[in-house]
Amino acid sequence: MALKILLVDPDESWNVQAKKFFLDASYEVTAVYNGREAQLAIYNDKFFAIIINYATENHSCMQVLKFIKSNSTNQRVIVIGNEQKVLDAHDITEEKLQKIGVANLCVKPFTMLQLKEVLEGHLSLSDLMANVPKKEGISEETEVSLTDDNFSKIKIEEFYSSQAVLFDIYIKLSANKYLKILHTGDTFSKERLDKYKNEKKVDALYFHNSDRRKFIQYNNYLSKKLIANENVPAYNKVNILKNVTEKFIEEAYTVGIKPLVIDQGREVCETVFQLIESQTDLYTVLRSYQNFDPTAYSHAFLVTLYSTAIIKQFEWQSRATIETTAMACMFHDIGKTLLPKEFIGMSMKDMSPEQVEQYKQHPELGFGLIENNRALNNSVKQIILQHHEAFDGSGFPFQKKGQKILTLANIVCLADDFVHIMMDEKLQPTEALKRILMDKAGVKRYNSVLIEKFIKVFVDPDKVKNEVALPSNSRVVKKAG
Questions:
Q1: Which residues contact 257 (CB under 8 A, 6 or more apart)?
Q2: Using one digit for the tens of pLDDT, what is the confidence trace for 454-470?
Q3: Which CATH architecture has domain 229-463?
Q4: DSSP letter, residue 121
Q5: Where are the domains of the chain?
Q6: What percentage of residues in the chain have a pLDDT greater than 90?
Q7: In this structure, what DSSP letter does residue 469 have?
Q8: Which of 428, 432, 419 is closest to 242 using CA atoms?
Q9: For 4-122, which CATH class?
Q10: Pairing relation of β-strands 104-107 and 76-81?
Q11: How confident is the model over 366-420, as pLDDT tens digits?
Q12: What sections of 229-258 are H helices per DSSP?
């Protein structure tokens, strides 16, 4: 059944255009031109979402919003502004609108596609699947020309779909040229994908960036299903969660840390907790896990995975602690988005002294981006700010030392350093750990208790053996002989 939306806008031409667009996108649409008609429609029917222009008259937008708050609890509302200066004149901000139940504020000019993206940010997975126009069979392949930066990439063997494909799927023909091989609503065909993989040697599929949220929703759902299944190997569980986490981080870095992004981040963090909590043999995967690409998104995923695995070794670990740390890990390098592009993929050892000083600002820059975001708790913010602080005071940006650093932040520091060594030097995880442990000066960067717990991440917790040198204040007893 198509989802119903209500459009309220005094501009008749815009209303007609918007109605046609959303009808073509498989929504059921009611369009009205004033507040009185809007209130009557809301009284007589139920809507998935209401899109209303702030310039609405007879009754005003604010009157309609008050009516909605009194008569339609939890109604999704998106307010449109024709001009920012009009909203400023009335002291209307997104924060103030959210206090009275408005989900989003969109100020013109924006495209219908952008408005649809905002609307679909509120779709649950069941809403999304119910609203897909199901077709029998598969549509004809269609060639399209769009710039490469419009697309997200996924390995072909790691793509999963519901019976009805939730969004258009492409293969890449050449730079800025794509072939749409599955259309939204098509019956999913693994045979077609296998044909491209085996006969045409296609190794990747693509989907539009605007569908990235749908990808995250569906694959996060699949992750939870797989994690709950004891018969599925741990590696497979980690791998699908990797895809979810990387695409979520890509979404956050691209569109910004908005309320809907944070809400989806919480869902991903819940899945991370579910994996860490239920998978007793996870150490076997973490000891050999090498399925990564040298990208910021893969880096953030691996830091998330290893940080939460360390926390799992402590008696004081909890769901809240693991989910808080997972959220901070996914955003820990968000400050780098404010650095010049020359820093992308650059190692500190390759930077000039001036560049190093600029690079060391990214924890503060990241903190600045999320400091006033009420949806993120203070622990997340402090971990982001302190994730490069070292236990011996050699870190940055404030050279904090010892107990002045949050334990969770020092855990992230350890995981972050470890992942950099593993990825930059292309080492096996166990070899990267040995590299850390054998660096007598470097190992002082971390609380020795964290080092002990990190070792347990890689070995059977019931068979912990110390095979390399540990800090002098370590409580782990060295193996005899």
A1: 331, 334, 369, 370, 373, 376
A2: 998 987 655 544 444 44
A3: Orthogonal Bundle (1.10)
A4: T
A5: 4-122, 135-210, 229-463
A6: 69
A7: -
A8: 419
A9: alpha beta
A10: parallel
A11: 999 999 888 899 999 999 999 999 999 999 999 999 999 999 999 999 999 999 9
A12: 234-255
